[in-house]
Design a protein that fits this description.
Elements: H1 2-61, H2 71-88, E1 92-98, E2 102-104, E3 109-121, H3 122-134, E4 139-145, E5 148-149, E6 158-171
Antiparallel strand pairs: 1-3, 2-3, 3-6, 4-6, 5-6
């Protein structure tokens, strides 16, 4: 009789309790997953609204960036555009120096930097800078240096050997970056 009870306990009761414990553990894990999924589903509408807001804000900034083109085309077209602005404002660029581009993967942009040395009347340089800052696509003035001559009470004078570093940004969207 005792042997039967021990055999029953060892081969039926203990495995049944172990199976019951593992089943309860699995159920508890599945309940936790269900709670997480339920929370995500509840937050889905909020997340979709947030995504729409971010996309609309991003669309407001898109016109500030150049569309993707190969680097040589970007540099040529933008140098021609900048040279045109310098001519329009009667400023003489003496040197264009393109620096290495930088990939800004977190915002899907490529930053191009150009350093330009120039000579011209300060009043024309101010007009140039105002137009450059207001233009689309956006040109970021990263650094600006000048030394003036002939500054009087009635004249702003002349800049000789002025230097400006301009950043411009190109969208990487629609183009896979090699690397």
């Amino acid at each position: 009789c005792c042997l039967a009870i021990l055999l029953f306990a060892k081969f039926v009761y203990v495995p049944l309790i172990e199976w019951q414990d593992s089943t309860l553990s699995e159920v508890a894990q599945k309940e936790k997953r269900l709670v997480k999924v339920s929370q995500l589903l509840e937050n889905e509408k909020k997340l979709l609204v947030s995504l729409e807001n971010v996309e609309s804000q991003l669309n407001q900034f898109t016109p500030l960036f150049l569309d993707y083109s190969p680097e040589a085309e970007i540099r040529l077209s933008q140098q021609q555009r900048l040279e045109g602005l310098f001519r329009k404002h009667q400023i003489k660029p003496t040197n264009f120096g393109w620096q290495s581009s930088t990939q800004l993967d977190e915002v899907s942009l490529t930053k191009y930097r150009v350093q330009v040395r120039f000579d011209g009347l300060l009043v024309n340089v101010v007009s140039f800078l105002l137009e450059l800052e207001a233009s689309k696509p956006w040109y970021e003035i990263d650094n600006f240096y000048f030394s003036g001559r002939g500054i009087t009470q009635s004249s702003l004078g002349f800049i000789s050997g002025g230097r400006i570093v301009i950043n411009l940004y190109v969208s990487q969207q629609g183009h896979e970056i090699d690397g």
